[in-house]
């Protein structure tokens, strides 16, 4: 699907990204994506504001807001993008102050996690910031996106969770340590019926694969016990862990149309065959030849994983197809590129067909 580019206005495209990172440059993928966009002419200037890092330094949210306003006044972005900022305590009033300080920037909010009003509620104190944003970008369609629209968010669009090439830069071929590997913690609510559906399914998957493979199946994450449990793994080592197995198994905690966590594109980038739980809309997002083997039942997951483990040479082509797809469509660069085009069109206030920015992943402009 093609995506039209929109003019940025007389001052060019100047992007400020506000991250909730505690250590600057932890979110390497965002910095690299911005540098690539500048190199390829997708924007003229960019700056990242590490909100939590500044909070640690200044120790007062009011002082951080004042500092952020000064930064916006000096940089004068045409686009201000909040990334996963649900716990920063920013109000609609502050958002309006930042817009005025910039001289009228377009404001976007990117939330790469999925929420559920009952099992994983979104912080309501952040709703004012979302409502004051020109566009809210979310990683699925369902109860969460519906709640945002009913609550007054004017423009809600789909952007998938993304992988990051830094994870696979140093991957080297190795003898497989495991037949199947899975990354994901054991998550349970103190109130059993509030445990997320995907967490329940994950426990059943771990039980079934442990029975089938014993210690040849490895599950990395908090809370697991038994011969397959390997303990937690640092986020940056996910791709390396995937590379240690003949097959990567995955599912989501929550289910919504189009939704998947960043563990899926990271596993795809690692170049190993992936067996993953199917969600409605995946055929639209990934196409029919993604290289990923989708399942809907525990039995189907076992069958598809065994097909990979028994014939590793026959599934190498699937793994390569998935890797190429992930790197061509599901990286932070692709996500930021789309969001910047959308927000540039907002700032240009174009109402003609030329101002429409087609979504690269689904056949709709908006959710």
Description:
The protein folds into two domains: 14-162 and 331-355, Rossmann fold (3-Layer(aba) Sandwich); 165-329, Glycogen Phosphorylase B (Rossmann fold), CATH 3.40.50.2000. The longest helix is centred in the middle third of the chain and has 17 residues, at 197-213. It is elongated, with a radius of gyration of 21 Å. The strands form two sheets. A six-stranded parallel beta sheet has the order 2-1-3-4-5-6, sandwiched between helices. Strands 9-8-7-10-11-12 form a six-stranded parallel beta sheet, with helices on both faces. With 367 residues, the chain is an alpha/beta fold. 38% of the residues lie in helices and 15% in strands. It has helices at 28-39, 51-58, 61-75, 92-102, 127-132, 143-150, 197-213, 238-242, 263-269, 282-286, 298-310, 316-329, 332-348, and strands at 14-19, 45-50, 79-83, 106-111, 135-138, 156-158, 178-183, 217-220, 229-231, 245-250, 274-277, 293-295.
Stated plainly, the CATH topology of the largest domain is called Rossmann fold
CATH homologous superfamily classification of the largest domain = Glycogen Phosphorylase B
Give the DSSP E fraction (strand runs of 2 or more residues): 15-25%
CATH architecture of the largest domain: 3-Layer(aba) Sandwich
Q: What class, by secondary structure content?
A: alpha/beta
Q: Note poorly predicted spans.
A: 1-10, 350-354
């Amino acid at each position: 699907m093609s995506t039209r580019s929109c003019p940025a206005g007389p001052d060019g495209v100047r992007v400020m990204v506000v991250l909730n990172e505690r250590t600057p440059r932890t979110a390497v993928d965002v910095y690299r994506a911005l540098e690539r966009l500048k190199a390829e002419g997708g924007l003229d200037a960019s700056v990242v504001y590490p909100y939590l890092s500044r909070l640690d330094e200044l120790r007062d949210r009011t002082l951080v807001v004042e500092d952020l306003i000064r930064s916006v006044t000096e940089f004068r972005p045409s686009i201000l993008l909040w990334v996963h900022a649900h716990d920063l305590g920013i109000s609609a009033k502050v958002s309006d102050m930042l817009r005025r300080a910039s001289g009228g920037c377009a404001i976007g909010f990117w939330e790469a996690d999925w929420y559920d009003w009952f099992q994983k509620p979104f912080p309501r104190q952040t709703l004012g910031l979302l409502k004051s944003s020109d566009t809210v970008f979310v990683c699925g369609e369902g109860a969460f996106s519906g709640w945002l629209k009913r609550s007054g968010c004017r423009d809600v669009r789909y952007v998938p969770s993304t992988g990051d090439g830094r994870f696979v830069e140093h991957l080297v071929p190795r003898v497989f340590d495991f037949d199947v590997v899975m990354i994901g913690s054991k998550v349970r609510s103190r109130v059993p019926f509030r445990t997320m559906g995907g967490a329940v399914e994950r426990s059943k998957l771990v039980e079934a694969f442990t029975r089938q493979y014993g210690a040849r199946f490895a599950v990395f994450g908090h809370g697991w016990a038994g011969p397959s449990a390997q303990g937690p793994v640092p986020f940056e080592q996910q791709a390396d862990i995937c590379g240690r197995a003949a097959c990567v198994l995955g599912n989501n905690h929550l289910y919504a149309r189009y939704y998947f966590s960043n563990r899926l594109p990271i596993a795809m980038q690692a170049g190993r065959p992936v067996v993953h739980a199917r969600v409605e809309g995946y055929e639209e997002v990934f196409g029919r030849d993604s290289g990923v083997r989708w399942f809907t039942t525990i039995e189907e997951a076992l069958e598809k994983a065994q097909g990979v483990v028994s014939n590793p040479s026959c599934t190498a082509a699937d793994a390569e197809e998935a890797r190429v797809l992930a790197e061509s469509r599901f990286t932070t660069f692709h996500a930021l590129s789309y969001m910047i085009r959308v927000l540039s069109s907002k700032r240009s206030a174009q109402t003609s067909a030329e101002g429409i920015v087609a979504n690269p992943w689904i056949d709709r402009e908006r959710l």
